[in-house]
Every structure is written in C-alpha cells, then in structure tokens.
Design brief:
Number of helices: 7
Strand order of the largest sheet: 3-2-1-5-4-6-7-8
Structural class: alpha/beta
Helix content: 25-40%
C-alpha cells in the first residue's frame, strides 16, 4: 500500500492544517511522510474508492463480513499530526501481526499538542462529531444503500471515544440517518473518556449503540490518572 488514508476535520489555513475545527477534508499521505498538508487532499470519491478497494481486495475469511474490513481510528486529545500518523501505522503493523487483513484509516479531529489544552480539545471534539456524522456517516449510509458489504469498525482512544459517542447521538437527530438501516461492525474504546453512566442499559446513548453496533468492547482502568482530569 503506497498511502495512508485520513479524514481530517482540522482547519486548513495557508496550506497547513491547524489545531482548530474546519471543514472535512480527505487526505492521502505517502508512506514514510511524517505530516500532511493541502497538497495531500484528494476528492471524497477518490478517497472512498481507494479505501474500499484496498479493503475488499484482501478479503479475510475470518471476518463476519463476506468482503473486507475498515477500521476507523479516532484519536484522543493532545495529538499532533505526526502522532496520529505514527499511531495509525503502529495499529496497522500490530493488527497485521495478528492476521487481520483490513485497512486502518484515521479520523483526525483538531487536537492541540499541549496537555493544558484538554478542555478546549474536548469542546472541539464535540463540535467535529457533527462533521463525523454529516460527512463520514453519510459515506457509510450511502454505501450500504448500494449493498456495499465492506465492514466498518471504530476504535476510539481517550477523548476519541467521546467524539464517537457524540457522533452516534447526533445521528439519531437527523431524519435521514435515523430512518436508514445502517450498521457498524465492532466499536472498541481504549481508556475512553466517557462517563460510566453512558453504559447503563437505559441511557439514551447506549440505546443508540445497541441499535447500530454489532459489538462494543470497552477497555478501561479505574485508576487511570489521565482520565482523572476528565472526572474533575
């Protein structure tokens, strides 16, 4: 594979992506590059065709889908573009070592590279969750309407889990998505910045998750020092 694929919600200014919310862009980054900018932006159609083609071109007989798998990685707060590329590539390498044949892509939301920017990052995450619905979920819905059998999974780390929960919540407020019979494969949270109350069976968000997701896995540590900031 010659490229890494990313959907970014960062603001584009002067040809460079900033740590502020902007319109969704689809990015194709050459292997080995440690950053991306305006020159790496491609059309939505090109990006989707590339990613689906790569996923379906190496079908996994162990998958629950008869076609390929796409894992969308949603990072947490305090991440630079270089961090995101490094982690996406590490995920790909580690999953390949476990015989997983899918493709890993990232949803890059504006996250500062300073620890004290946590609360601003969290606000930005809530804002771009609506973009995740309006653009990315629209891809899933439209593809599944055309009987696309590619399986879509989500992995949310830290505040990335918060972005995912907000996006799923927003999806039920838009008529075209609420009425559509779309589904996600597996969703996993790692140190998810999500209230434990959100996992109650009666919680509105959990009801959405039960309706739209085939499996939810939540990895957490009740003594996580970083999440203590969120608890405070």
């Amino acid at each position: 594979m010659a490229f890494d694929y990313i959907i970014t919600a960062r603001k584009l200014s002067g040809g460079q992506f900033q740590a502020e919310p902007g319109t969704i862009k689809f990015v194709r980054v050459p292997k080995g590059s440690t950053s991306y900018d305006e020159s790496n932006v491609v059309s939505r159609t090109t990006w989707v065709n590339d990613v689906v083609g790569l996923a379906d071109g190496d079908e996994n007989p162990l998958s629950i889908s008869p076609r390929g798998d796409i894992l969308v990685y949603v990072h947490g707060y305090n991440n630079s573009i270089a961090n995101i590329l490094e982690r996406q590539r590490s995920l790909t390498t580690n999953l390949r070592a476990e015989a997983w044949k899918g493709i890993v892509v990232s949803f890059d939301w504006p996250s500062d590279n300073q620890l004290l920017g946590y609360f601003e990052d969290r606000d930005d995450g809530a804002a771009v969750a609506q973009y995740l619905v309006g653009t990315c979920l629209d891809i899933i819905v439209s593809q599944q309407k055309r009987n696309c059998l590619t399986n879509i999974h989500l992995l949310g780390h830290s505040a990335g889990a918060y972005v995912i929960t907000k996006a799923l919540d927003y999806s039920q407020n838009k008529g075209e998505y609420f009425k559509s019979d779309w589904r996600l494969g597996q969703v996993a949270f790692v140190s998810g910045d999500v209230s434990r109350n959100s996992f109650a069976a009666t919680d509105q968000w959990m009801q959405v998750m039960n309706k739209r997701v085939m499996r939810l896995t939540n990895y957490f540590n009740p003594f996580d020092a970083a999440l203590a900031v969120s608890n405070a």
